Amino acid sequence: QQPVQSPQAVILREGEDAVINCSSSKALYSVHWYRQKHGEAPVFLMILLKGGEQKGHEKISASFNEKKQQSSLYLTASQLSYSGTYFCGTDAGGTSYGKLTFGQGTILTVHP
Amino acid sequence: KAGVTQTPRYLIKTRGQQVTLSCSPISGHRSVSWYQQTPGQGLQFLFEYFSETQRNKGNFPGRFSGRQFSNSRSEMNVSTLELGDSALYLCASKAGGAGYTFGSGTRLTVV
Questions:
Q1: pLDDT tens digits along A23-42
Q2: Are A98 and B50 a contacting pair at CB < 8 A?
Q3: Which SS3 state, helix, strand or coil, does residue A80 take?
Q4: What confidence score (pLDDT) does residue A94 get?
Q5: Among the listed residues A26, A35, A27, A90, the one whose alpha carbon sits nearest the alpha carbon of residue A58
Q6: Tens digit of pLDDT for each residue in B52-92?
Q7: Does A41 touch chain B (CB under 8 A)?
Q8: Cβ count near B51 (within 10 Å)
Q9: Which residues contact A109 (CB under 8 A, 6 or more apart)?
Q10: Do the chains contact at B90 and A43, CB–CB below 8 Å?
Q11: In chain A, N or C: fewer CB atoms in 10 Å?
Q12: Any chain A CB within 8 A of the CB of B66?
């Protein structure tokens, strides 16, 4: 089943913060986050394994709540380059290891 | 380090034809996955290969098939093309427990 992302779209001014959520109904082994700009391939941001760890990548960080099967992506002090569609991809592990099920995407637009 | 290379970049095919898409993963990456991306359905998993073995398959009809060679290069084939198969087909590779690196994709248009 496809994870649900919220919000579907968000508009920011440079320097503002945003949070994108990803919720799954299945037990997860890991959550991936990717950003895709128009006409380009998705770019890997980070992976979170079950265990509730939080990771950071420049001004972008993420958390994974294993009990709730939810992950959140935090973008702080947004830059114009952050604009794009953000996808979470969930991996249930076990016999499904390596199979990513992607959310429908969150469109992030950053204005000057 | 070279990225994931997909060929061709664009394809136009007629209904009923078949098509083969190619993917060269990053050197050393043994896991290769294929995804279909459309505006309506988003990113959908097709299959994943590891060391020439298909480990997982998505919910696509048997017209969609793939394979991986000993050098980790992969191909996917779609037979008896339908208009609904028009999409961006993305290949991605990874090593171990890292994230996937995607190729630029093959844009398939079925007319």
A1: 999 999 999 999 999 999 99
A2: yes
A3: helix
A4: 87
A5: A35
A6: 999 999 999 999 999 999 999 999 999 999 999 999 999 99
A7: yes
A8: 10
A9: A9, A10, A11, A12, A83
A10: no
A11: C
A12: no
